[in-house]
Specification:
Two copies of one chain form a homodimer.
Chain A lengths: L5 E8 L2 E8 L2 E5 L1 E6 L9 H6 L5 E3 L1 H6 L3 H6 L3 H5 L5 E3 L3 H7 L3 E3 L4 E4 L6 E4 L1 H11 L3 E3 L11 H24 L8 E6 L5 H14 L3 E4 L8 H11 L9 E3 L5 H9 L4 E4 L1 H7 L2 E4 L2 E4 L19 H4 L3 H9 L3 H27 L3 H14 L6
Parallel strand pairs in A: 4-5, 4-14, 5-6, 6-10, 10-11, 11-12, 12-13, 13-14
Antiparallel strand pairs in A: 1-2, 2-3, 7-8, 8-9, 15-16
Amino acid sequence: MPAAFQFHLIATDGAARCGEIMTSRGRVATPAFMPVGTQATVKGMLPEAVRAGGADIVLGNTYHLMLRPGAERIAALGGLHKFMNWPHPILTDSGGFQVMSLSGLRKVEERAVTFRSHLDGAMIELTPERAIEVQALLDSDIAMQLDECIRLPAPRADIERAMRLSLRWAERSRRAFEALRRAQAGGALFGIVQGGDDPSLRLESLRALIDMDFHGYAIGGLAVGEAPAAMLATVEGVAPALPADRPRYLMGVGTPADMLEAVARGIDMFDCVLPTRNGRHGLAFTRLGPISLKNARHAEDPRPLDETSSCPAARDYSRAYLHHLIKAGEMLGAILLTMVNLSYYQELMAGARAAVTAGRFEDFRNQTQAIWVQGDVPTR
Amino acid sequence: MPAAFQFHLIATDGAARCGEIMTSRGRVATPAFMPVGTQATVKGMLPEAVRAGGADIVLGNTYHLMLRPGAERIAALGGLHKFMNWPHPILTDSGGFQVMSLSGLRKVEERAVTFRSHLDGAMIELTPERAIEVQALLDSDIAMQLDECIRLPAPRADIERAMRLSLRWAERSRRAFEALRRAQAGGALFGIVQGGDDPSLRLESLRALIDMDFHGYAIGGLAVGEAPAAMLATVEGVAPALPADRPRYLMGVGTPADMLEAVARGIDMFDCVLPTRNGRHGLAFTRLGPISLKNARHAEDPRPLDETSSCPAARDYSRAYLHHLIKAGEMLGAILLTMVNLSYYQELMAGARAAVTAGRFEDFRNQTQAIWVQGDVPTR
């Protein structure tokens, strides 16, 4: 019988937290960054490279996987972990966010969201129950409820309607999860706090979700067009009202700066496509801040990106070489910068964990930000 | 002082040979396959993956590197090995072949070939002396003379003219190599036998080259449009007339079947883009023959490509997963199949070396071909 999902808080420092999630497939140290493995692969990365970069858990996208290759097919092949050769924990989203962002035609009704596949134009229906079923077929360790995520800014009435619908879908997701006995199988289900940038709607949402008793709570509907300050203000309002003994996941966030501020406000988990997507396009996230390798100033620079990094890709290749690879459109440029970025995201999380445990998170935040501001100054 | 270039013949079996090339940067077991690293990267591969796949040496393309990022820049950055983080031997071609195949506008004259860069349209002149200088700037371990390589079929007069020009360029390349004291620096220079599909022209070319005394001899101008039988007939005519104590390199060849037949005829070294290029396009070369992962018959196949392979990419991922990655256009599909293909090419070479040493090369060739013919039959 697989171990039940557990979360232990190890230390706190101000609002910042350090903890661990225990799953039947292993431990996730928090604060945790989850690399995005949209189509059953973290783009350009061998799974062992994702692991070597420090990831304890990756995210899989239900929307993409249910369309191709199909959840039933992945189940027949032994589940998503075996399919993608990643034996460690996987969190899957519910598909709702991608339905909104990728499908041109969609209709949200009480019973389901119906959408046209961006791959072949087929009309597909996704109910809260089907979203849970798909995630069970994938055999994910942490499933998410189906929600409706709308772009900001939006009229309060629209935000309220979507939040209330998301609550009713949360209830149905919870029942479907129990019916499939996913908790007994070691799985977990997270509810998603909605309510846009309206504090009272956010509080209504989170209170209702807490009453339903989820394994963890996500803050959804952010990083969808609002100002960074609005995003942090919402986190600051929501996080303290969430139960201290459950993990808190800020969905789709963000930059290193965003994550550092969110950790300071009590967030435990993140996912974002920035380190992988920007890496493919020539942008490195480093201890010294972001560095665009497309820039011609790197063409003759023999220095590595960061010789103090734990990542070989940041130490063993010159900026001149990385610039050459990006200019030449070589896959290896995307591969190396994705490695650099994922490693830096994980280093940032590891640094935050150590700092919280040592009771010096404020120092860590200040020092980290100071080096970003100082930036990528040649040492010669 | 770096060790001088050496070649030792370890064993022969019929015309097939097993040997070793010693360079200042390490040993190359022969028969050897050299993965192609056109733009200072074997496409999609970390250098440690190329090495783990069994490669002792890679090939760099002088034409591409002199255009971008430039030979002088690579030299200023410490040479090609450091630039691409590959500390093992590198063979560079002379640039001549790509001038013919990639540059739309070109003019071959006695003194030089002048061509328009496919990158920015600049007119560039390449003399035999400059080709040697560029390869010295790259600090390659094995340099190639500049030659003129023409497409087959071609009139005998054209083949003869190009062969004679290539001989005069060989002489100039040899002098330039000595003037730069590349041999004293541990480097080597190979001459290139030309003469198309005409046996008498081939013999004239190789005799003249042997008189010039190169470290090794390449057979050029094949795999350029002629029938496979014509290619092998030329190899069969040329190889026995080459000095037994020098390595023999069949340029741009080929498929596993081509290489096996060429080893049987006394060839020691190969390079080809097929394992990397075809891997990116969904074709796997395996012990069981070529397997096209694009084919829908693999969509639900849980079997790995070859569970007996030494390559993790051939063992740890189902055909269904590889099919999914290729269909979804994911980089990881190209990466895994490139790993599979390079490993299989190296396994084939290692098998040939062991078979020659054990005096059972004919058995090895027959068994290998029999399994290819039997093909990719499901074991269920």
